[in-house]
Design goal:
73 residues; elongated; three-stranded antiparallel β-sheet; two-stranded antiparallel sheet; mainly beta; binds zinc ion
């Protein structure tokens, strides 16, 4: 991430800021809500201001079935 404090972020005031997804699902209309990375970018500077990877999925074993649960490990 390149915008880590006030001054880093301040220099992007008035620029074109977008939120984009990357990876599996990012460009698939049927799975658009499932990118592996999401980023806030300044298009004016072509710079990533901040980004986060999708948390790993956690598998919880139950008596009847394996149930999938999303969350941070
Ligand atoms: Zn900028």
């Amino acid at each position: 991430m390149s915008a880590i404090d006030y001054n880093d972020l301040k220099r992007h005031i008035g620029h074109e800021i977008v939120c984009v997804g990357y990876g599996v699902g990012a460009f698939d209309r049927n799975d658009r809500d499932n990118p592996v990375n999401v980023a806030i970018e300044c298009e004016t500077c072509c710079e990533v201001l901040m980004d986060y990877d999708k948390p790993e999925e956690k598998y919880v074993k139950t008596k009847k079935t394996n149930k999938r649960k999303e969350g941070v490990l």
